[in-house]
Amino acid sequence: MDFANSGSLRRPLSWEELLAFLEASAVISPQRSAVLLELPEADPIAAHALLQRASSFRDGLRRVFLTLIRQETPKRETVEAINELLRVTEGHDELLFDGARWRIEFVARENGLEWLLAAVARSAAEIVAEGAEARVRICANPDCGLLFYDASRTKRRRWCSMAVCGNRHKVASFAKKHAGTDRSG
Ligand SMILES: [Zn+2]
User: Fold this and answer.
1) Which residues surround ligand 1, an ion (CB under 5 A)?
2) What is the pLDDT along the chain (185 residues), one digit of tens a residue?
3) Which of 55, 99, 103, 161 is 20 to 30 A (C-alpha) from 12?
4) For residue 8, what are the contacts with CB-CB under 8 A and spacing of at least 6?
5) CB-hemisphere CA count at 13 Å for 114?
6) How far is the CA of 48 from the centre of ligand 1 (A)?
């Protein structure tokens, strides 16, 4: 869900925004992030491909979530953005010796950069599989547009964040009320 909110929604993701998201969500370590920061120079083609994929995945995710918010079932072509990335995670378990003991480890068939987005795809797939129960919401502030998952007990959360949009609303409605009193007085 955070990925669907990353960057500015009016333009494609930037490389820095993508890395900031991956690092903040602990998909990559700060060290890996520092290495990847150089990728657009080291391997422009790979970086460009991943960035394009990430950007269109973000937009695709938003479409999926907006469908869920309207209480509709997403169409096959809408969830394809998620499925494409889930397919990247093909692989098998293998016994690998770590020097002291055997461990069962997942060995990926492909080791491309798309892997970085696979965890996001998995989490999005779980939300879609919740169907009508999925508590995906869009912030009640029409100028905001951020999506969030309503984990509140009352299931009636309205704002992406009480501190930002919730408070702005409170201040605005107070000002409106106050202005009304002034006019009448
Ligand atoms: Zn908001």
Assistant:
1) 139, 141, 144, 146, 160, 165
2) 899 999 887 899 999 999 999 999 888 888 889 999 999 999 999 999 999 999 999 999 999 999 999 999 999 999 999 999 888 877 788 898 989 999 887 777 766 788 889 889 999 999 999 988 899 999 999 889 899 999 889 989 999 988 889 887 777 777 777 775 554 44
3) 161
4) none
5) 22
6) 30
Nearest to 73 by CA among 125, 131, 124: 131
Query: What's the gap in Å between 136 CA and the centre of ligand 1?
Result: 14
Could you identify the residue written with the tokens 């080791």? Answer: 111
Helix or strand or coil: residue 51?
Answer: helix
| Angle, helices 115-129/76-88, rounded to nearest 10 degrees | 140
Token code pair at residue 28: 């990559």
For residue 50, the CA-to-ligand 1 centroid distance in Å is: 28
User: Cα of 7 to ligand 1 centre, how many Å?
Assistant: 14
Q: Are 93 and 67 in contact (CB under 8 A)?
A: no
Contact yes or no for 172/141 (Cβ under 8 A): no
Which segments of the chain does DSSP mark as H helices, in order? 15-24, 30-37, 39-42, 44-69, 76-88, 115-129, 167-184
Determine the distance separating the centroid of ligand 1 and the alpha carbon of 142, expressed in angstroms.
8
